[in-house]
Amino acid sequence: MLRLYISHTESDSTVTGPLSAMLLVMCLIGMVGNIYTLVVASGRVAGRSVGSLGVYVINLALADFLYLSTIPFVVCTYFAHDWFFGDVGCRLLLSLDLLTMHASIFLLTAMSLERYWAVTRPLRARQAGNTYRKLASAILWLLSLLLTAPMMAMIQLRDQGGHYKRICFPTWTPAAFRLYLTVLFATSVLVPGLVLGVVYTRLARAYRASASGLGPPTTGRASSQKLFSRIFGIIVAYWACFLPFWAWQLTRLYRDEGLGLGPTAQAYLNFGVTCLAYGNSCINPFLYTLLTRSYRQSPGRSGRGPLEPWAPSRGVTQGTVGGNSASLVFKELSRSTGESGEGLEQR
Known about the structure:
This protein is mostly helical. The protein is built from 13 helices and four strands.
């Protein structure tokens, strides 16, 4: 993480061993899990479809894999008290942290928006193919790269002597650096958080309206709600792991004295939020597995076609959700959810 490369202190040595061991275990587990996710989501037969969310899952797993790949460099730096990877390594590795962080939340937001459109505009949502999703993913990666470019340009390797011989350090003024990190906090947490808050609030209203108008929940609606809840769980895990990191970074930037803690306490807190941030990429493969399992449990997998929603009265069917009848919404969502699982299941 950013703080690891920029502000080492001698008190960090007190927790170097335990931290390094924990990070290496997380790296091993997380990289194996994400490789497995990439293999499963991509399909074991060349050219096989990956389903509607498969493209996003592949990109999310790739972002997590790249993020975890920085751990060995972090551990090496702590044990050696030096940076062996040159100026180019400074620029690439610090930028990779920010790049993958933004790519992850942008992809999660895109995935949530697509599921939202599957409910509110099911006919139009079904017309979007994997080519569209691949293009959207590429654009999101490019946007993440653009946000990361200033860090890549303004970081350099400095020889400072003392406990740590060489460290990566920003060349811009403290005020400019604070502004840049504040912008990154807004783009990686605040803005996506507002978008996702609106999306899931509207989804909750749509489900509540459909539940009150369509009678007992059908298999199609229940599995669709499970799909949304699991996507939301991945988003909550992201926030739970990265909000403490950002809170600590911004506190150190805007308050020179931090939280009034001693050097050793600050070292433990710094390493704690670092492990939490890396932990997100470690647990995500398990969350992705639950997500793909919800595809396999969705209607339309049994060969009998999508399940029909509960037959409501005529008065109820006149109600709309996002401009479409509630009956049509969940009939189409059941069908699209069932079809989206085809690629991940067939391997």
